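Reopening this one. Same input as before:
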Amino acid sequence: MSTTPATRAYRSKIGRLPWAVRHELNERLRDGATGTDLLTWLNRHPAQRGKPRINSQNLSDWRTSGYADWLRDLERAHHIRTYAETAQHIATAAGGDPAAVGSRILAGRMLDMLEGAEAETAADFARAVASLRKGETDAQKLELENRKLTLAQQNLELEKQKFKRLTCETFLKWYQDKTAVEIAAGPGSNEDKIAALLAFMDHQQTL
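Same output, byte for byte:
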């Protein structure tokens, strides 16, 4: 079973080193360290102790494989941060949603790429844009549902406050009625008193 250069890179002497060592090596390569200095540093590193020495060919192979992958990952991360920051700035200025702005920027970039794409690639991009748009629409629907739920909760709370106020007003009204007070203060269980008070209130309302 054949392996790609990238796969072979991570099975090499350098590729088998811990991630932290490989990451520092990549940073040193990016900063322009010489091959001699890098080999000296690598072969003296505790993680390399007891292992076969890393030579200049190993380092050269790593430059074109693992290190090249690392640079591409940095570039992708940089683009993502740039798009996210741009979306945030636009959303802040316009008072909108950063996610929605970001999806429009990304969709625009995809459409630009379609101009030079082959038919099969164009179809893949079109599906990606459609999926992106659907995700934005779903997010908008969810936001609308959340707003409806918030409004319903506010209305429920308002109704609770109205009910409490009405209860207090009713209590004060009947508290001032001599007969209602006599029923409330008279003998019998609470259930009997409640029944008697309801009957008295119903009678009073028919007068």
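So the earlier flakiness isn't reproducible anymore. For the record, Residues 119-175 form the longest helix (57 residues).
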